[in-house]
Amino acid sequence: MKIKIKSIILVLVCLLILNIPYLSQNMNNMINLVIESFLLIYMFTKLHTKHSLKSNIYVLLFWLLMVICTFLNFKFTSRTLNAFVTGAQYFLLFYYISYFSKKDSLQSVINLLWKYFLFVILIADFIVILSGGNGIWNQDIVQRYYLIGNKFTVSYYHMFFLSLFLAQNVNVKRAKHRNLIFFLLLAYSIFICHVIDCNTGIVGCLVIALVHLISFRKNNLIEIMSKPTTIITFFVLSTFLLVGTDLLLNNQYINNIFGKFSHTSKLLSGRLDMYAITLNGIKAALWMGHGINCTLVQDVLSWGNPQNGLLKMLLDFGIIGTASFLLLIYDSTKNNRNNNKQIEYSMLAFVYGMIICSMVEINLSGLFYLGLVLLKMSKRDVQKNF
Tens digits of per-residue pLDDT, 260-269? Predict the structure, then answer.
């Protein structure tokens, strides 16, 4: 059976998302750099780059600012290389997904991604179940790891898998049957999240189901939710709402009420310590940040991170870098005519699920950008003649 070059390219692009936990960051960077070099060479020598580069100008801008913000802090070091490799990953995701969606069809890209993620998830879940959720212990980090990463990575793969199911034209004649299969997959994904003890993943899966139910009723609410201003406003406000709520709970009188629950008090105290360090770090490098993967919180507390996707973005890349990130979201979610509503709403559900999870975790990485570019292409006219 002849394997199409498109299939090879898209699999390589998906492999960029994997960050193998058993290897050092430098080793992961080198593996990704080899793959990215091949994809960039193929892009410039074999493909029509002019149109696709122009249509992906915002992800190019974000990539450039990631490198600049990191270079200003670390010069020519492995950290700057990491920024280059990570930014290239996001750019290549956008470039090749948009290119093949225009050259062939977005649905053909969705179908290929479905097969890839089905294969990966089946193997990963086999290890999860076989190990009883214990995975493989890394004694240095004291964290459970599975085939594709830690428990959060496994959960996010399941969230994306659910959205891919909703996005593809499966051979199910009636919507009720299709929904039945979806909710069976939802129950299975929640079960896996429970086995690996990832409540964040359970919440993310439920958010995807909720957005799907809203879209299935075809009311005005889903149209409002799909507007770029709504998505960005929700993203920003959810961050401030969480931080503000934690600060409120730290009020002396309210804290006295919760103080009797020592576990809650300790969790709140630890989170507030991380927020305080993060906010001070953001103020110290307000415009350009501290560079990619800033370890300020861990350096001070010997553990932890900002515990919030948007705060982490501000800490790493400052206001300028974060503004370019939000501009990328705006460009990817702005409405155009001839939308593919089925794919649009399924990827919208994934984006909202990841935004909700980012309130308490650092998850704005490869999978988020993959969902974002699929959402972008669902809102664009698909050109058959390319």
Answer: 443 444 445 5
